[in-house]
């Protein structure tokens, strides 16, 4: 999602400490899932309120559409925006369908409880997996599947 050349209004900004990286986290992530929503503002509300993400940056166009947003969780980040902004990414993603995203959380049951309190569409309750993780899954407001669990990608290879 390009923000270059557009007349944008930044709606939020990070609070940084000197020890934090360029995006306000200890280390910038190498991979950021990028999602488009018909109602990006509602998605941001759900991701922050129900799932505990923090707004890092939200850029809106003159019509109030979200052309680029960055939400953080732990040392990870997801980028998102509104469908219909006319950006190259928006055009390429047309008809691409929902996406799935996995987020590591330390306490699946507490995280699940928070999501339930905010009316999240739970599609799989907290479940112990054969590979040692405890996960639950939700469908967000526009059909993307979010998995939250104790699995730490890459940890098995690192040990």
UniProtKB/TrEMBL annotation:
This is Glyoxalase/bleomycin resistance protein/dioxygenase. Residues 1-25 are annotated as: Disordered. PANTHER family: BNAUNNG04460D PROTEIN-RELATED, VOC DOMAIN-CONTAINING PROTEIN. It comes from the Bacteria. Residues 7-16 have a biased composition (Basic residues). One of its GO terms (molecular function) is dioxygenase activity. Gene3D superfamilies: 3.30.720.110, 3.30.720.120. Residues 28-151 form the VOC domain. Keywords: Dioxygenase, Oxidoreductase.
């Amino acid at each position: 999602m390009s923000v270059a050349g557009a007349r944008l209004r930044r709606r939020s900004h990070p609070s940084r400490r000197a020890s934090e990286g360029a995006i306000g986290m200890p280390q910038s992530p190498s991979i950021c899932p990028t999602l488009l929503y018909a109602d990006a503002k509602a998605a941001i509300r759900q991701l922050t309120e129900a799932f505990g993400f923090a707004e890092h940056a939200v850029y809106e166009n003159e019509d109030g559409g979200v052309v680029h947003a960055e939400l953080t969780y732990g040392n990870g980040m997801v980028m998102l925006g509104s469908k219909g902004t006319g950006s190259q990414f928006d055009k390429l993603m047309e008809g691409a369908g929902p996406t799935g995203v996995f987020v590591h959380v330390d306490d699946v049951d507490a995280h699940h409880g928070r999501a339930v309190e905010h009316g999240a569409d739970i599609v799989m309750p907290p479940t112990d997996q054969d590979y040692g993780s405890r996960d639950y899954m939700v469908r967000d407001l526009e059909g993307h599947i979010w998995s939250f669990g104790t699995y730490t990608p890459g940890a098995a290879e690192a040990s």
